[in-house]
Amino acid sequence: MIICTGAQAEEQAVLMRIVNKEHRTLEIQPGDAVVFSSSSIPGNERAIGHLKDYLARQGAEVYHNQMMDVHSSGHGKQKI
Q1: Whole-number Å distance between alpha carbons of 24 and 22
Q2: Could you tell me where the DSSP H helices lie in the chain?
Q3: 3 state SS of 18
């Protein structure tokens, strides 16, 4: 399992570098599962769509919150 940055399709994030084959040691293999556990930030939808498409074209199984309940907040919670 690899947990990495890049669910918003940021150019220098790890996930984008993996997809663009710019990462030194990681690459997408057919059958890999990629889970987007966050919602899209408004304005990023098109870039995220392209990212998911690139992953699928490389053979990855892509999962996101519109398919199943995989959403997680990007913010920590404090118990009160």
Answers
A1: 6
A2: 14-19, 45-57
A3: helix
**For residue 29, which amino acid is it?**
Q
The phi, psi pair for 60, rounded to 5°, reads: -80, 150
pTM beyond 0.90: no
Q: DSSP character for 3?
A: -
Rounded to whole angstroms, what are the CA distances from 14 to 6, 21, 26, 51?
Answer: 6, 10, 9, 12
User: Which string of b and e fits 32-66 if b means at least 16 CB within 10 Å?
Assistant: eebbbebbbeeeeeebbeebbebbeebebebebee
**Distance from CA of residue 64 to its chain's centroid?**
9
Q: CA nearest 19: which of 70, 48, 58?
A: 58
Model confidence over 45-64: pLDDT tens digits? 999 999 999 999 999 999 98
